[in-house]
Amino acid sequence: MSIHKSIAKSASIIGFATFCSRILGLIRDMVIARLFGVYLYAQAFVIAFRIPNLFRDLLGEGAANAALVPVFSEYNAKHSKEEFWELANVVLNLLLVILSVITILGIIFSPVLVRIFAPGFMADPQKLAATIALNRIIFPYILLICLAAYAMAILNSLRHFAVPAFAPCLLNISIIVCALIFGEGLAGLASGVLLGGVLQLLVQIPVCSYSSGSVIRQQRRSGN
Length: 224
Prior knowledge:
Layout: H1 2-36, H2 40-78, H3 81-108, H4 110-117, H5 125-138, H6 141-157, H7 162-182, H8 186-202, H9 205-223
């Protein structure tokens, strides 16, 4: 019975967090529409943000849900905590290398990506240039959000659901606040995306650190 209650509680937390994120996403879109309307930077933001979001779905949250969570969960069940964190560190190092390469290539080839995703923008040089510039600024978001997805996979495998579930809300809050502060232009939207990625990662680090630190403390106690 306790297991069923735990599952129900976890599902309710994730469901409520998803609901909050959707509501904040709606508010975000309303703020952008109110401040920018069909203004050049609003259109540029839609495309520039869509490109890293596609990579996020493929490499970040999609990969975390489909691959990392099951692997980490099974490894946590069948191996010691020390071995679990050794695997986590190996995966982290591999992700850092792959994501760094993808981020650098994405920044370099932003003109090509924008032309592929928004061929209609080529008829408007100003809009095309703004979209390329914005995409280059926010492309590091891929690195941040994929690392956040990695942290989410770690925490979910350790049955910590609340923090990673509510972390996506921070992105929408960040975009809303930065858009209201900076107003029209690239600065508000770009800074909001990057700050949101940083916050989603940072909010999960303390829980991961505490979980890994507990293993170190156990090792020290057993050594004593």
